[in-house]
């Protein structure tokens, strides 16, 4: 009787072990199948922001036969430009004056001989400031310098957005949310459900002009690439 009871207990334990093994095998197979099903989606986030920093080079050239006279003219012009800027809200600390670049027609071996004067001096006064609106205002008032006889021209004005770190977290969260929404739509269309995230790759942030006519307006953009598992 005791032997039969022991045999029954052993049989029950064996059956339970076989059942557990079966469930484990099934779960493993299901898990393998689950991991073979995945979808990779991209999530986009964009922001339109205004530049908060600008570098504005004001350039002009003078020509003549006497270097001393040209130096005096350059000094006078630089003083006029500096006065124009500082009297209109630009600090002296935001203004830099580069040494003039000198062209000597007599010593230039590549000169065509058609240059009228012996010397030409090219000068640049650069404004480096966060006062973007003020610079835009002064750009429309450059005729004031023309009235002083200074033929200023603008080379490339560099508008920058320097507060990317402040908006990064929200943009990454938005890109991730949009990626998940795309994955959810794919899952719905394929009669599946979204599983766990397998991998994620955050793309680089890009900052571009919204248009050539409004270079102070910037579009910040990031694309996140995320892979999700799919399940039934």
Kindly describe this structure.
- The structure is a single chain.
- The protein contains five helices and ten strands.
- The model has no long low-confidence stretch (mean pLDDT 84).
- It has 232 residues and is an alpha+beta fold.
- Strands 2, 3, 4, 5, 6 and 7 form a six-stranded antiparallel beta sheet that branches. Strands 1, 8, 9 and 10 form a four-stranded antiparallel beta sheet that branches.
- It is elongated.
- It has three domains: 1-36; 38-52 and 161-232, 2-Layer Sandwich (Translation Initiation Factor IF3), CATH 3.30.110.170; 54-158, Alpha-Beta Plaits (2-Layer Sandwich), CATH 3.30.70.
- The two termini are 50 Å apart.
- The protein has helices at 2-36, 67-86, 132-139, 143-147, 164-189; strands at 38-50, 53-64, 95-97, 101-104, 119-129, 153-154, 158-160, 193-202, 206-209, 217-231.
- The longest helix has 35 residues, at 2-36.
Provide the descriptors you would attach to this structure in a database record.
alpha+beta; 4-stranded antiparallel beta sheet; Translation Initiation Factor IF3; single chain; Alpha-Beta Plaits; 232 residues
List the SSEs and their pairings:
Layout: H1 2-36, E1 38-50, E2 53-64, H2 67-86, E3 95-97, E4 101-104, E5 119-129, H3 132-139, H4 143-147, E6 153-154, E7 158-160, H5 164-189, E8 193-202, E9 206-209, E10 217-231
Antiparallel strand pairs: 1-10, 2-5, 2-6, 2-7, 3-5, 4-5, 8-10, 9-10
Integer tally of domains: 3
String of helices and strands: HEEHEEEHHEEHEEE
How many beta-strand runs? 10
Name of the level-1 CATH class of the largest domain: Alpha Beta
Question: How large is the share of residues in beta strands?
Answer: 25-35%
What is the radius of gyration computed over CA atoms, rounded to a whole number of angstroms? Answer: 36 Å
Structural class label:
alpha+beta
Which architecture of the largest domain would the CATH scheme give at its second level?
Answer: 2-Layer Sandwich
Number of helical stretches of at least 4 residues: 5
Mean pLDDT: 84
Q: What is the terminal-to-terminal distance?
A: 50 Å
Shape label? elongated
Oligomer classification? single chain
CATH topology of the largest domain: Alpha-Beta Plaits
Q: Biggest β-sheet, characterized?
A: 6 strands, antiparallel
Spans of at least 5 consecutive residues whose pLDDT stays below 50 are: none
